[in-house]
Design brief:
By secondary structure, this protein is an alpha/beta fold. It has a single domain (about 20-125), classed as P-loop containing nucleotide triphosphate hydrolases (Rossmann fold, 3-Layer(aba) Sandwich). About 40% of the residues lie in helices and about 10% in strands. Strands 1-4-2-3 form a four-stranded mixed sheet. The longest helix is centred in the middle third of the chain and has 15 residues, at about 70-85. One of its GO terms (molecular function) is 3'-5' RNA helicase activity. InterPro entries: P-loop_NTPase.
Length: about 130
């Protein structure tokens, strides 16, 4: 089927470019209150990094793991993918929050739409 995502085993392990930088990224996040990560589309920024941080316990140190996406559909899709790869139900450990739709309670990692994050960041500069 055109556009279907790869099966989970194809994306596990070292298949994505971000895997080579796992330790450095986790270390960088542990040393800073926030981090902006850039990379090519499909490198694993949105799906793998939240899992690495969760596994390293970063949500306990910093209080949240947030991943922003420019569009509502992308935010929800990334959260679904991360939940699927982590083997949990969406909304239990992994969730998302977009305008008029919050499937997260206090879960971490959480996908957050830019339209939801920006107003919160303005009101809470420490975000």
């Amino acid at each position: 089927m055109l556009g279907a995502r790869p099966p989970l085993p194809a994306m596990e392990g070292g298949a994505l470019p971000i895997r080579r930088h796992r330790r450095a990224l986790v270390r960088a996040v542990s040393e800073r209150p926030f981090l902006i990560v850039t990379g090519e589309t499909g490198s694993g920024k949105s799906t793998q990094l939240p899992k690495y941080l969760y596994e390293a316990g970063e949500e306990l140190r910093h209080g949240a793991i947030g991943v922003t996406q420019p569009r509502r559909v992308a935010t929800i899709s990334v959260a679904q993918r991360v939940a699927e790869e982590m083997g949990c139900a969406l909304g239990s450990v992994v969730g998302y929050q977009v305008r008029f739709d919050d499937c997260s309670s206090e879960v971490r990692p959480r996908g957050v739409g830019v339209g939801t994050l920006l107003p919160r960041a303005v009101g809470a500069p420490s975000l």
